[in-house]
Specification:
The protein is an alpha/beta fold. Helices cover 43% and strands 14% of the residues. The protein has 40 helices and 30 strands. Strands 1-7-6-5-2-3-4-8 form an eight-stranded mixed sheet, sandwiched between helices. Strands 13-12-14-11-15-18-10-19 form an eight-stranded mixed sheet, with helices on both faces. Strands 20-29-28-23-27-24-25-26 form an eight-stranded mixed sheet, with helices on both faces. Strand 5 and strand 6 form a beta hairpin. Helix 14 crosses helix 15 and helix 18 runs parallel beside helix 19. The chain is globular and about 105 Å long. The chain starts with a strand and ends with a helix.
Length: 912
């Protein structure tokens, strides 16, 4: 028995390895990281080995691995494909094609079997290299060392290993190998397919070459080489399905029209952006993205980071187009310059439409024809329903703009997490918007058509479905659903030789006897699940995707709870006790609001602003009181929101009685602020961060509706945790970081980057600024104040409970002062809270108006107000729970012919 010591400095290891492998029938190998180790292990010398078994590690979810032991899961395949593609580029793949071919041949033939071990708290990282070579003559040898069996490793790296052919050495390495083999899971077939596709991958000569060949309709050709795949991520199955739905709609009708209503945290921006890229290539026209001002930068960042495509943001104040570095890329002009974006994708704030001059930028945009139009936060496009019984009498500015621009555009996509309003007819308003210039959306005008918003009465149950077969078929035939919707549509379209683009189906009397019988038997199901309203609204909720195994389940632990160890004297009921001075200040604020509203029936947000701010923090309440006493303009009291066109700009004129109330509020709040000790909200947060371990284990983001509160909390945290940098994340250029006693203004994107890399673990943010904020690196959230619309809590939670969150449980603390309206609201909701969110996902913005009126009218009425929410599962969720599936039929990563990244970049840099 011999121990041999090998060093590449002393002799070529390639010759030694070739000699050993030429005699080997079976090779067992403990490798390193999944992608690099497999490629490094591949060499021509492996071609003569009968059986190869490799164990390696990868950054995959241990839950996915556990499930995969019994059935291959899409989640595991996605994780491994993304791990394989991370940091690769086209040149890498070109230079390594030979090894890709060898590797795919070995895997596809079954001669090489690979298992991966998840790298998590329960498993160590496989860093050691070891192996066993079993020879055809019955002998064997084992080795331990750094050797990689790649041409590069053998020629250019310094490699060492110790080889031992003693039986006990072989058995020792075999025990190590089998231990980790039992922990691993077989390499999914999807990954093997991807490796094969890379081995044969090529590029189209040009975009026009792909267009001539009809390949632009394959989304994979333009998406699988995007940066999202190069950063270790992938497009998720539900995102692929949305893009595919858009492409299919475009293929059939030359136009794609959809409303995407996925839950917060499921990647709507990326879904819409990916669809916009593919549709832009198909339409060859300009792309307009409309979003609230607080979301425009997030759109621009996600487009370049995830899809590698440039865009420009319109600055209404500077009358210029701005790039991602905030540099002007067009000369200063007038309002007409908005119609001349220097790149293909232009991003414009909806505030330009809502608040701007109707003959200014909005008019110039209406004059253009767009290949793609995307409206984010589409629920803000509303009709004027001031008619009898809530009848529509017109469209408000954003909806009017969208209806007019949709009629002159090819593809229109809407996005919102809250399309399901308490008044369901608002869904019809959005789908009717999509139908402008696209007859296939709602069909032709007719007495039994879907164009009239009264058709929504069928879906809400306020109107019975017709019982006459001719009337029933009338609702199904106009527009007739595509073949893919149901077997009956497939039969009708086939028998009547209807082209996919044909909108209206045959008359009832022209149907065969069998089809007539089938229509009568299946009408109820067809009408509710395949009607044109439902087909245009695509909604996937987080629970739906979790149940389907497409998303890891993330539990939410709500605080405070009895087991938290908080001092009982901090609380009065579920609210935080603030003492007599605070209660007197709050009562005076209620009197002020009542006086203010009584003399100003259209007081708008001003009727509640003082109460909301006092309920947020003493500092915010005191600052607001003093601003009101100084005659502040109403707009100065609004945080980070550019979409409030009805706010007056003149100073407030207060009555003597109102001033007296405000003086009383000021005096009592000043007394509270001068007390010794921590504000109870700060004390609770400090407890969770310290004794609760949130700072050490999770990091935290705290949300407030108001900048004053976020800034106050940031200062307090910096004082209590001086070793930690504290970020205040807000709009209007007011973001900053507190560190080592210094306050430094900081770009919001820099804060997001610092959170992602772990250098900042504590963030205080405003609601308006948090739209599109992706901070899944953090695992705890505090709601410093509670919005009067409870659904906004779900939007906040979506900042950390989203794709990429690695924790199985996140923590959410809801804080409120005792004896405030917030205390009333959330006490009333506490028992029904989960039911409401499970049914609606999020409550609509319109809910807030009724809620506020009820609160101000009668505090006791708040306790029964939640009963007004109808707990009936929306039809869109019933439909899409049926349609949720993996992406086994959308194997985009296996696509072999793709568009050149350079060609796509050049295409997207062409201006309007």
């Amino acid at each position: 028995m011999t121990i041999l010591r090998h060093s590449s400095r002393r002799a070529s290891l390639r010759d030694m390895l070739a000699e050993r492998l030429s005699r080997t029938r079976r090779y067992l190998r403990i490798a390193g990281y999944f992608r690099s180790s497999l490629l490094e292990l591949v060499s021509e010398e492996l071609g003569g080995v009968d059986e190869i078994r490799i164990i390696c590690n990868a950054e995959v979810d241990a839950n996915d691995v556990r499930v995969a032991r019994s059935v291959e899961t899409g989640a595991l395949s996605q994780a491994l494909v993304s791990a394989w593609m991370a940091d690769r580029n086209g040149l890498d793949e070109l230079l390594e094609k030979g090894r890709y071919r060898i590797l795919h041949g070995l895997l596809a033939s079954g001669r090489m079997k690979v298992r991966v071990v998840p790298r998590d708290g329960g498993n160590v990282f496989l860093h050691g290299k070891a192996g066993i070579l079993e020879f055809r003559d019955g002998g064997s040898t084992a080795f331990v060392g750094s050797m990689n069996e790649s041409a590069t490793g053998l020629k250019h790296s310094y490699e060492i290993l110790w080889e031992d052919d003693a039986p006990e050495a072989t058995e020792w390495v075999r025990e190590e190998f089998e231990h980790f083999w039992a922990l691993g899971v077989d390499l999914p077939s999807a990954v093997i397919g991807h490796i094969g596709s890379v081995a044969g991958r090529s590029e189209y000569a040009s975009i026009e070459d792909a267009r001539r060949k009809g390949e632009l309709s394959n989304p994979a050709a333009s998406l699988v080489d995007r940066p999202i795949y190069r950063t270790g991520q992938v497009l998720r199955p539900w995102q692929k399905r949305f893009v595919q739905a858009c492409v299919d709609d475009h293929a059939a009708h030359g136009k794609a029209r959809f409303l995407l209503a996925d839950d917060v945290g499921l990647g709507k921006t990326l879904s819409l952006g990916a669809a916009a890229l593919v549709l832009a290539l198909l339409s060859d026209g300009p792309v307009l993205i409309l979003a609230p001002a607080t979301l425009t930068r997030q759109w621009q960042t996600e487009l370049v980071d995830m899809l590698g495509i440039p865009s420009a943001i319109w600055s209404s104040t500077r009358k210029q187009w701005i790039d991602g570095e905030d540099f002007a890329i067009s000369s200063k002009g007038d309002a007409s310059a908005v119609a001349r974006c220097p790149v293909r994708i232009g991003i414009v704030s909806t505030g330009v439409i809502v608040s701007g001059d109707d003959q200014g930028e909005a008019a110039h945009l209406r004059g253009r024809r767009f290949g793609v139009v995307v409206l984010d936060e589409a629920h803000k496009a509303r009709a004027d329903r001031g008619g009898k019984d809530g009848g529509r009498v017109g469209a408000k500015r954003l909806l009017d703009f969208m209806e007019r621009i949709a009629a002159n555009s090819e593809n229109v996509l809407l996005g919102t997490a809250t399309p399901i309003q308490l008044d369901a007819v608002e869904i019809h308003d959005l789908v009717a918007l999509l139908s402008k210039g696209a007859i296939h959306v709602l069909g032709k005008e007719g007495s039994r058509g879907w164009i009239s918003d009264t058709s929504m009465d069928y879906l809400t149950g306020e109107r019975d479905w017709p019982t006459d077969p001719t009337d029933q078929w009338g609702l199904l035939r106009n527009p007739l659903a595509p073949m893919s919707e149901d077997a009956i549509y497939r039969k009708v379209r086939s028998l009547h030789r209807m082209a996919p683009s044909q909108v209206e189906g045959p008359r009832y009397e022209d149907l065969s006897r069998g089809l007539k019988s089938q229509v009568r038997a299946e009408f109820a199901q067809l009408a509710t699940q395949t009607n044109p309203i439902i087909r245009r609204v695509i909604r996937r909720s987080r629970p739906m995707l979790e149940d389907a195994g497409l998303l890891s389940r993330i539990e939410v632990m709500v605080h405070p709870r009895q087991s938290d160890g908080l001092p009982v004297d901090l609380f009065s009921g579920a609210g935080l006790e603030m003492g007599l001075s605070f209660r007197m200040a709050y009562d005076a604020a209620i009197r002020f609001c009542a006086l203010y509203v009584s003399s100003r029936p259209s007081a708008g947000f001003m009727k509640t602003i003082l109460l909301r701010r006092i309920g947020s923090s003493v500092e915010a309440g005191l600052n607001t009181t003093r601003m009101l006493l100084q005659g502040a303009e109403p707009r100065s009291l609004v945080d980070d929101d550019d979409d409030l066109p009805d706010i007056r700009t003149e100073r407030l004129a207060l009555t003597p009685s109102e001033i007296s109330c405000l003086r009383e509020v000021e005096g009592h709040l000043a007394a509270v602020s001068q007390r010794e000790g921590l504000d109870p909200k700060v004390a609770v947060i400090a407890h969770y961060l310290g004794e609760g371990g949130w700072l050490r284990r999770h990091g935290m983001i705290a949300f407030s509706q108001f900048y004053d509160t976020a800034e106050f909390l940031g200062r307090e945290l910096a004082r209590l945790f001086p070793e930690q940098p504290i970020a205040i994340y807000a709009g209007g250029g007011r973001s900053f970081v507190l560190s080592d006693g210094e306050r430094r203004r900081t770009d919001r994107n820099a804060i997001k980057d610092a959170v992602r890399d772990g250098s900042i673990k504590l963030v205080a943010a405003t609601d308006a600024a948090c739209e599109g904020l992706n901070l899944q690196r953090l695992g705890a959230q505090v709601n410093v104040d509670l919005p009067w619309n409870p659904s906004r809590l779900e939007q906040r939670k979506g900042r950390i409970q989203r794709i990429g969150q690695t924790r199985s449980t996140i923590h959410v603390a809801n804080l409120r002062y005792a004896n405030t309206y917030e205390d009333d609201v959330y006490s009333a909701l506490s028992e029904r809270f989960s039911d409401i969110f499970q049914v609606l996902g999020q409550l609509p913005d319109s809910f807030e108006d009724d809620w506020v009126d009820a609160i101000l009218r009668d505090r006791d009425a708040v306790k029964s107000f939640p009963a007004r929410v109808k707990l009936t599962k929306p039809a869109v969720e019933r439909r899409y729970s049926r349609d949720v599936a993996g992406d086994t039929d959308l194997t985009w990563e296996a696509t072999e012919t793709i568009l050149s990244s350079r060609d796509i970049a050049e295409f997207m840099r062409k201006g309007w």
